[in-house]
Amino acid sequence: MAQLFMQYREYAGQGLLVAVFLCALLYLAFCYRDGRKWLLVYTSCVVFVLAFCPLLSNLYYRFVGDDTYRRLLWLLPITIAISAVAVYVIQKERRMLLPVILLIVLCGAFTYKSTPSTPVRKAENLYQLPQDVIDVGDYFNGVSERKGRDIWVAIPVSFIPYIRQYTTHVNLFYGREMLDPGWNGGNDLYDTMQDVCINIDIVDHYQCDYVIYTHDQCMSDDYEKHGYELETIIDDYYYVLRNTRFDAQDEG
Amino acid sequence: MKIFLLVVWLILLPLGIGMPITLQRERDTLGVKAMQSFLTGYFVVLGIFQILSTIAVLLHLTMTQLTMVSICVYVPLAFFGYGVYFMKLIRPGRALFEDRREGLKGFSACFYVLAVLLMIAQIAAGFYYETPNADDAYYLAEALEAYEKDTLYTLDPYSGYPMEFDVRHSLSGFPLFYSFLGRISGVHPTIIAHTVWPPVVILLAYITQLLIGMTLVSREYASLYLFLIGLLNLFGNTSRFATENYLLTRTWQGKAMLSGLVIPAIFWVFLYYLSKFDTRYRQRESIYYDSGKTAYRREYVTGIITLSLITLTGLFASTMSLFLLTVLVGILVVLLAVYFKKPLMILNIVFLPALIILAYAVLYVFLR
User: Fold this and answer.
1) CA B330 to CA B353: how far, in whole Å?
2) CB contact under 8 A, B267 and A39
3) 10 Å Cβ neighbour count for A236?
4) A156 CA to chain B: closest CA distance, Å?
5) Rounded CA gap, B32 and B17, in Å?
6) Is the dihedral of CA A140, A141, A143, A149 positive or negative?
7) Does any CB of chain A come closer than 8 Å to the CB of residue B118?
8) Among A165, A172, A189, A210, which would you mutate to test the B interface (most chain B Cβ atoms within 10 Å of its Cβ)?
9) Alpha-carbon distance A166 to A137, whole Å?
């Protein structure tokens, strides 16, 4: 039950808009006797009851297996009920227009305000991906075309969510699951790619075609001794090392 | 050329496909009919794509085959739709649309302008700002795998390794739809998802809300209703799980379509039934309704078809629909059956949508 309440709080945020919604439902419940009351008020009541029903939530967890039960609250017709009741009120008294608008603005929160969970930033291109990801992706598309196969790359951690949205000719040894706080698995290549000094023995072990590291990082040992060669530097920041051991194989 | 192809496939095709269903409904203004056709057309397009993509995934077909079959289904449907429209248009007799231009003045027109401006601002913000989300690493990489590798849910989107069948994601078709649009227009699926598709979803969400507004409040005040919806979307970021937040910042993800479009559309269908069959409601809002037997039957049947298509669109957006739509439709049916005191009439409405949900639930359990 405590977990359900926490999920409700996560959904409602500071809860002011939900409070406005509840007031709208009360207005509908007392002023309307037709089917609209049944559709909006009673439906919302049942959804609220189900949202806090341990039996249904247990069934849900057993069937789906994750903590997304809060999505049941999407069924609450919050915007529909608030807007409809606001219109009913304004219909009766037009002077209520400005207070209603102010209420919505003050009780809500601006959607395009950047937050850690939803960063909002100026789009750099039509893909709406970081431009450096596209520059690196373009480079590897060329490599993949030359070699006639997909290439396996150890990439900087910041590229993980984006690179395969741009090109699937780049294959990875670790993916987005690494960024998930709930992820229990480990990947030593991912771990070392986060370090300032990347352990080249681990990179060697994975037999990557390419390794990309940033200007702020370095390799733990002379990479040429391990068969790697600096092929290019992209955007003056990303160092691209090629594993020369696969050259003969690719040419063959 | 790419823009022309996208205009044809994203605007003209759904509009044509939705016409035969919409024209079965009672007469209305050209604007309302166009909105109904566009919305219903999208429910047909996305609903059919959901069926085709499910079959394609289960039969291990390729993206090329799925694209070819989809084109072969959509194009004749669109021609049929426009054919029906022109046949009805040239047929002598009563005009096809109502003329209510005098109703669009002053107060109402002012709020239509404000509502449209709010909607355009939100669409423009979708172009200007990027709101990255880690879940895209799955959905869009999967769309790109289909586009570039011609595979359907067989490669791990995070790494590129072959993967086991992922029933939870594979039964919803929306990533493959971006691939499909990419294949027919030559535009990269990530551009489709992040830049081309959000205006479509936002427009559909606003059309749904306007149609709800026309039913729930009077026609004169529907524009004010729409404006307030726009305002709530703009100031609805009360938490990262709020539906308004999903609609504007994760528009291309199925969850946004489900919460911002499909769930309101279900309310629209049931409100539509209410406005037609609830005498108390009709008297209070002075709603005129042709209560003849044929009109009644047509409204009833088109409502069932629309609800079934919305159910399929929900499944297209997310397998989460299996749970959410079952609960929502279940609640609405029970409540309305009690209210109308005609359980059979209400149960008939959801028979087909319930069968669709049941079929997918069986598939989900069987493939899990």
Assistant:
1) 11
2) yes
3) 6
4) 14
5) 16
6) positive
7) no
8) A165
9) 7
User: Can you tell me the distance from the alpha carbon of A16 to that of A104, in angstroms, rounded to the nearest whole number?
Assistant: 9
Is residue A202 within 8 A of residue A173, CB to CB? The reply is: no
Distance between CA B310 and CA B329 in Å, rounded?
11
Nearest CA in chain A to B127: A123
List B residues 236-295 in contact with A (Cβ-Cβ < 8 A).
236-245, 248-250, 255, 258-259, 263-264, 267, 270-271, 274, 278, 280-281, 284
Chain centroid to CA A125: 19
Residues in B closer than 8 angstroms to A24, CB to CB, are: none
Contact across the interface for A179 and B259, Cβ inside 8 Å: no
Tokens of residue A131, six digits? 């431009």
Locate B56 and state its tokens: 């394609």
- What distance in Å separates residue A244's CA from the closest CA in chain B? 22
Q: Do A43 and B242 touch (CB under 8 A)?
A: no
- E strands of chain B, at which residues? 129-130
Gap between the Cα atoms of B193 and B137, Å rounded: 12
Under a CB-based contact definition with an 8 Å cutoff, are residues B221 and A87 in contact?
yes
Q: Is B167 on the interface with A (CB under 8 A)?
A: no
Alpha helices per DSSP H over chain A: 2-12, 16-31, 35-36, 43-51, 54-64, 78-92, 97-107, 131-147, 163-166, 188-194, 200-206, 247-251
- Would an 8 Å CB–CB cutoff place A33 in contact with chain B? yes
B316-356 residue pLDDT tens: 999 999 999 999 999 999 988 888 887 777 788 888 999 99
- Complex ipTM over 0.85: yes
Residue B351 in contact with partner chain A when CB distance is under 8 A: no
Q: Render each residue's pLDDT in chain A as its tens digit; 252 residues.
A: 778 888 888 887 777 899 999 999 999 999 888 878 888 999 999 999 999 998 988 888 887 777 788 899 999 999 999 999 999 999 988 899 999 999 999 998 898 888 888 889 999 999 999 999 999 999 999 999 988 899 999 998 889 899 999 999 999 988 877 777 766 667 888 888 888 888 888 888 888 889 998 888 888 778 788 888 888 888 888 888 888 877 767 666
Residues 6+ apart with CB under 8 A from B93: none
Residues of B in contact with A167 (CB under 8 A): 144, 148
Note the helical H segments in A150-223: 163-166, 188-194, 200-206
DSSP A227: T
Nearest by CB to residue A109, choosing from B194, B212, B238, is B238
Residue range B114-118: average pLDDT?
96
